[in-house]
Inverse folding.
């Protein structure tokens, strides 16, 4: 373990995938954040795409080749760069991830490189298809997708929206968060150490 790793707590961003006015995302994001904060193994914060109103990606080239010039995109990329791992809280639109999230990730390239990504899906089939598409997308950004995910299926999703239910009414969901966070925590530590070693070696070279 490098000296950096022993003195700095990892920072995990909980990314909300939709900006819809009537979105459900805030509830699972806060639920996961509360469970995660009680662990004490990292600092967790919400990253809300509403705070980064990005236009449709129409740059002359990918940020892989052409630096961002949009001020919001630069601010968004810097926020992602300062984080050591990510939890995507996603709905499922037309069997895939929300367009606003896909668009936002078009503005980043190496800011998320060699960092882990975990997933919380809600809605039809627990947004499992959106999560699978996200896994492929984050691999292209050189991230490490985790195996364990949280899937909030239609029964609890609709009951929380329409019947006043809460996560405590579905106790089988909390253990899936624990499994996801256990795996994410391990990858976050290992990859953070690896990035720091590589940075030290680059300076020494």
């Amino acid at each position: 373990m490098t000296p950096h790793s022993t003195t700095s707590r990892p920072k995990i961003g909980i990314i909300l995938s939709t900006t819809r006015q009537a979105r459900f995302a805030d509830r699972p994001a806060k639920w996961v954040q509360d469970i995660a904060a009680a662990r004490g193994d990292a600092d967790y914060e919400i990253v809300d795409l509403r705070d980064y109103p990005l236009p449709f990606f129409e740059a002359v080239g990918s940020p892989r080749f052409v630096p961002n010039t949009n001020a919001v995109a630069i601010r968004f990329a810097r926020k992602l760069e300062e984080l050591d791992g990510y939890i995507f809280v996603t709905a499922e639109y037309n069997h895939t991830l929300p367009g606003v999230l896909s668009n936002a990730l078009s503005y980043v390239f190496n800011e998320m490189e060699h960092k882990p990504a975990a997933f919380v899906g809600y809605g039809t089939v627990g947004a499992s298809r959106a999560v699978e598409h996200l896994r492929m997308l984050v691999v292209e950004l050189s991230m490490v997708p985790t195996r364990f995910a949280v899937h909030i299926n239609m029964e609890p999703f609709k009951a929380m929206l329409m019947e006043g239910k809460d996560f405590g009414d579905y106790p089988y969901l909390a253990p899936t968060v624990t499994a996801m966070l256990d795996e994410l925590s391990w990858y976050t530590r290992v990859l953070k150490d690896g990035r720091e070693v590589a940075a030290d070696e680059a300076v020494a070279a």
Summary: Strands lie at 11-16, 43-48, 85-90, 116-122, 144-145, 150-152. Residues 3-204 form a domain with the Rossmann fold fold (CATH 3.40.50.360).
